[in-house]
Amino acid sequence: MTTLKVTVPASSANLGPGFDALGLALALHDVVEVGVTDAGLKVEVFDAGAGGVDDVPTDETHLVVRALRRACEHLGVPAPGLHLRCFNKIPHARGLGSSAAAVVSGIAAGYALAGRPLDGAAVQLAAEFEGHADNAAASLLGGFVLAWCDNGRFHAERLTPHPSIRPVVAVPAIKSSTAATRGLLPVEVPHADAAFSAGRAALAVHALTSDPSLLLPATEDRLHQHYRAPAYPATGRLVRDLRAAGIAAAVSGAGPTVLALTIDGIIPASVDVDGFVVVELPVDQTGVQVTGR
Tens digits of per-residue pLDDT, 24-74? Predict the structure, then answer.
């Protein structure tokens, strides 16, 4: 009987101007226990803090199952019968990479069952599920990642964030979806806005790795956040209030969670966070981990 335990971190993507390119792994983890059986599939889903998982499928359409099967196909090994126990802590549909974490769990489990270490192809396999690699690469590699795509091939590089950065997330009760908020984005943006965001994304890499004093200007965005703002007014208000208080804040991924990159782990008392659950989440430096026999 093969039993694996897969632990995978949440992630925050974009970090302001780095749309579909920058990601940060956060120390909030889903855990998947993978058992190999003689045949068939059994999926059990437990809400360990994700805020409701009643809509999660328990058949072959479950993301972990789909990703595991895809990894087995890629590695040329038979897809086994499975018994999965999924303990979900990452809030669903909140912009903290829950779907990417599920995919990464499945990919990592598939590699482990095949007796293979994770490699560069794992980023490709994971990114194919969502069409961008920022969240998936962060959950795979940990730390701070740069992701890009060349002619359908996804790539990512891991960098070490500055040790003084202490991320804080503010999670609202409302949900959102990448598909819905992406639909609010225009087909074209003004050249000035594109140039602005390119410069700030480059600055964000420097600020996140070398000089956190520049995080406030480095997280300013003109490419996507204001277009998505009507979908979650409270999120936009909180981002504005935090930035006015000198805190480098941005919408986490597709929202509606707010990410604040602080150096003390504290949101100023003057900022109204009513309607949000605020928690400090350290950077996860290791990425997905697989243990077991």
Answer: 999 999 999 999 998 899 999 998 666 666 678 999 999 999 999 999 999
Q: What is the dihedral of CA 11, 91, 89, 273, to 10 degrees?
A: 90
* CA-CA-CA-CA torsion sign (7, 8, 10, 15): positive
Task: Give me 123's structure tokens.
Answer: 């980023």
Q: Give the distance from CA 124 to its chain's centroid.
A: 16
CB 189 within 8 Å of CB 223: yes
Domain assignment present for 289: no
Say whether both 23 and 79 belong to one domain: yes
Per the omega criterion (within 30 degrees of 0), is the bond before 256 cis? yes
Query: Chain centroid to CA 214: how far?
Result: 23
Quick one: which H or E segment has residue 281?
A: none
Domain total of the chain: 2
Per residue in 135-164, pLDDT tens? 999 999 999 999 999 999 999 999 999 999
The verdict on pTM exceeding 0.85 is yes
Q: Which domain holds residue 211?
A: 166-280
Q: Tell me 75's DSSP state.
A: H
